[in-house]
Structures are given as C-alpha cells and as structure tokens.
Amino acid sequence: MDAQMPAVLVLPGPVSRDQVPGLCAEVRALLESGRGRVVVCDVGGLGPPGLAVVDLLARLELTARRSGGRIRLRDADPALRALLGLVGLRFQMEGQVEEREPALGVEEAVETGDPAV
C-alpha cells in the first residue's frame, strides 16, 4: 500500500456510456492531485457484472496507467472477479496479496522426483 491513504472513487451503478468519460476524468484528477499513485474504485454498487462494467474498468485502468498510476478494486463480488478473469483483465483487489508478492509464511516445496525446469 502507499504511505498515504489512497483516493477512493465510488462507482454508482449502473453506469451509462455517457458517464464513462467523466469517471475517467475523475481518476485522472485524483492521480494528478498528488494523493498517491493508486485510486481505489469501490465497485460494490455497480450491480450485476456485465461487459459494460468490464469496459468501464478497463477504461479507468488505461486512464490511470496513462497518468502514471493504477486502480485497485474494492468490494468486488465473486461474479465480477470471475468475469474479469474470463476476459483476461487482472486488477489488484483490495485485501488480496498481489500475485508477484508471496503471502507471508508460505513456502514453495519441491518434490524430490520432479525434473528441473
């Protein structure tokens, strides 16, 4: 996590296509305000996940990356996580360890008969 508390953007649901540019502008403004390089997007109120939600989150992430940051999802339901995985988008979820960081106390074991890779 960042040293500062990250900015939070609550995404209301459902979001129409007309609202997407404004939400992208909000992410950009939050990152440019100097409150850190991460914007937490609270997705709990978006409603049932669909491709419109996937499109919104992809655009928000692209906007954040272009501004030198990223977004982190808060309160994502399992169906949204599954849909994002299905379309190949990976987001950092609040409360989960990042993939490149091993969980504390977890060690990978090797079976003695395994061939070297």
Characteristic key phrases:
Transcription Regulator spoIIAA; 32% helix; STAS domain-containing protein; alpha/beta
Please provide a written account of the structure.
There is one protein chain. The chain has 117 residues and is of the alpha/beta class. It is built from 3 helices and 4 strands; from the N terminus they run βαβαβαβ. The protein has helices at residues 20-32, 51-66, 78-86, and strands at residues 7-10, 38-42, 70-74, 92-93. α1 (20-32) packs parallel to α2. The protein is globular. It starts with 6 loop residues before the first strand and ends in a 24-residue tail after the last strand.
Helical amount: 25-40%
Strand content: 5-15%
Q: Give the total of beta strands.
A: 4
- Could you give a short account of the major beta sheet? 4 strands, parallel
How far the N terminus sits from the C terminus, by CA atoms, comes to: 33 Å
- Strand line-up of the largest beta sheet: 1-2-3-4
- What is the CATH fold-level name? Transcription Regulator spoIIAA
Write down the secondary-structure element order: EHEHEHE
Mean pLDDT: 85
User: CATH superfamily name?
Assistant: STAS domain
**Second rung of CATH, namely the architecture:** 2-Layer Sandwich
Class in CATH?
A: Alpha Beta
Number of domains: 1
Q: If you compute it from the alpha carbons, what radius of gyration comes out, rounded to the nearest whole angstrom?
A: 17 Å
* Unreliable residue stretches: none
How many H/I helices? 3
Give the overall form: globular
Structural class: alpha/beta
Protein name: STAS domain-containing protein
Domain STAS: 8-113
